[in-house]
Specification:
Structural class: alpha/beta
CATH superfamily of the largest domain: NAD(P)-binding Rossmann-like Domain
CATH topology of the largest domain: Rossmann fold
Strand content: 15-25%
Strand order of the largest sheet: 3-2-1-4-5
Distance between the termini: 43 Å
CATH class of the largest domain: Alpha Beta
Order of helices and strands: EHEEHEHHEHHEHEHEHEH
CATH architecture of the largest domain: 3-Layer(aba) Sandwich
Radius of gyration: 21 Å
Oligomer: single chain
Largest sheet: 5 strands, parallel
Number of strands: 9
């Protein structure tokens, strides 16, 4: 009996590599789709096939069409926000040849748009860090008055444009001057950004450190 293959989208990421290894460990044939074939995660030997193609736009649909023609019915494991969005937008078209589990679009938007999620958490009475959504440079003055550094800055929706321009998922800033200096670039890369207080973790006590070695 031939097992249904699993298609790991965005194999060239830690999440993608881990997913592929887990599936392969259960004897499931894995097909990986990568944007960057030179990425170290793209060199894994746990895939039956690795295909180079876009995972962030409708180019992904063309790659999936090729996979459907070669392998038949497959299970999809999207490992990036962008690939989840592409699959969600085209879920009716993809269900003929692929199996995947996604919540409704409004639920996806709630969890993937950080502005919506933080507002939902705040309105629901959950404890969250002090959070601001500066839409103008003048809003930074309010942040300076209400929030002491260090700060965390991240996009409302993580996109390829943000990663390409900023090179990091989250920025850690030590002063309001740093925030003023990068504000325009961040807004240009994300459209909407989030500024939060940075909450540091505590060091583990020596006995706990020993247990984790």
């Amino acid at each position: 009996m031939v097992k249904t293959p699993a298609v790991v989208i965005k194999l060239d990421s830690i999440t993608g590599l881990q997913t592929a290894r887990i599936l392969s460990g259960y004897g499931i044939p894995v097909i990986g789709i990568v944007d960057d074939p030179s990425h170290f995660c793209s060199r894994t030997s746990c895939c039956e096939e690795i295909i180079v193609g876009s995972t962030t736009d409708d180019g992904l649909l063309e790659t999936l069409s090729v996979i459907a023609g070669k392998w038949g019915v497959s299970a999809l494991f999207p490992c990036s926000d962008e690939s989840v969005r592409v699959i969600s937008r085209n879920r009716e078209r993809l269900t003929e040849h692929f199996r995947f589990v996604l919540p409704d679009e409004d639920v996806l938007d709630l969890f993937m748009n950080k502005v919506n999620f933080y507002k939902y958490a705040r309105d629901g009475g959950f404890t969250i860090p002090s959070t601001f959504f500066p839409a103008r440079r003048e809003d930074i003055d309010e942040i300076a008055e209400k929030l002491r550094p260090p700060y965390i800055v991240k996009p409302a929706v993580k996109t390829k444009r943000w990663i390409d321009r900023v090179q990091k998922k989250v920025l850690k800033l030590g002063s309001i001057e740093e925030l003023r200096g990068i504000y325009d670039d961040c807004l240009g890369a994300a459209g909407v950004i989030i500024v939060q207080e940075r909450i540091g973790g505590r060091r583990l006590l020596p006995p706990l450190q020993h247990l984790l070695l």
